[in-house]
Amino acid sequence: MANSLSGRFLILTIIFVMLAEIFIFVPSIARFREDYLLARLERAQIASLALLATDGMIDDALEAELLENAGVLNVVLRRDEARQLILASNDIQPVSYSFDLRSPTGVELVRDALRRLLRQQDETIRVIGEPVREAGLLIEVTMRTAPLRAEMLDYGLRILVLSAMISIFTAALLFIAVQRLLVVPIKRLVFAMTSYADAPEDASRILEPRASVRELREAESTLQTLQTQLTASLRQRERLAQLGEAVAKISHDLRNILTTATLMADRLDTSTDPAVQRTTPKLVASLTRAVNLTEATLAFGRAEEPPPKLERFALSDLAEDVIENERLTDADALISYGCDVPNGMILRADPEQLHRVLSNLVRNARQAIAAHGVPGEISIQGRETEDGWCIRVADTGPGLPKKARDHLFKPFHGGARKGGSGLGLAIAAEIVRGHGGRLELVETGPDGTVFSLFLPSGVASLP
Fold first, then answer.
1. By its UniProt entry, which SUPFAM superfamilies does this protein fall under (predicted)?
2. CA atoms of 40 and 70, how far apart (whole Å)
């Protein structure tokens, strides 16, 4: 129980209440001592007045009885500047301490009370006070401390017992309150987490916030959000795994079909038609890239992106080939293409993979402009720097939508156009990373979009 939240709260409550009672006990016991001494002064005054009323004509037995009832040893009363011994016993010990109750401070009362509790020996003390009802100028008595200490101990014991009862009762009420308000909701939260961990794909195990305490309800709401997102992510991963398996099967069969189409396209080389002779190399190159793409897709389905096969080539030829392929696809001729790459710019990279990157970027730009319905321009620019090569693909399209900007380069989180999957940018970024470079979105807006592709020469070049 001591290791539980409610048990520790119960123990701490008892301790704190007892500490509070101790701070109350000290001034209470000081006040009790003061009242006790004042009561003895008042009784002594009454006894002395009774003696004065008889002009002192009482016997010793009656005088002893008056002193015993007053609880004092002698009484001195000062009236009209005259100090008079009114009552006195025969057995008076030397006075150890004198206490003046006419104007005591709180510190003095507390100090004297604690001192009396700690001193066990019976002593004789003198107590000075003012007579009640102005029956004189001063009254002074001597008394034994044993009865006073016994009364103080009895009073203190009763205070401690009462404090303990109050502490236990208060702690019990707080224990019940903590159980209902904190422990039960926390246990429910822990049970919900454990239950969800056993089957995170089961949406019925997602916690429904019900706590009445604001902080616990916020914790439940946060856990609910986390569970909802995790369940959705697990379902998406499951669908992606199934999709990946299906794509791998399709890519395997598609590779065989494309290989057959490539063999048939090779026969077009024997045609004498000029148009066929002009388009046949483009067709064969496209089929070859399609075969390579299916093979790469099979490798991607095995969570393996093939490493780049580095070789030297002219970037201008590859950029022109990408633009020519997209120009043939643009049936409405809404888009003009430009290539600003120096003829002598030679870089070392995987030409097939870089072709896929530039094709994805240019295709996305073409589709965005075509969907916008306004004529536009796409350009590929290249320049060489001291530490690598920089390639920029710019367009004058409508810009990327917010969803594409928020999930840039993440597959299946929305592409650059409506209905897109986002795979093109994700694949392009992964290929560039495989070359040790980076693909970045430089700017996007109503005036167009610019992507920048950087390949470091330290990675792309070999000694």
1. ATPase domain of HSP90 chaperone/DNA topoisomerase II/histidine kinase, Homodimeric domain of signal transducing histidine kinase
2. 6
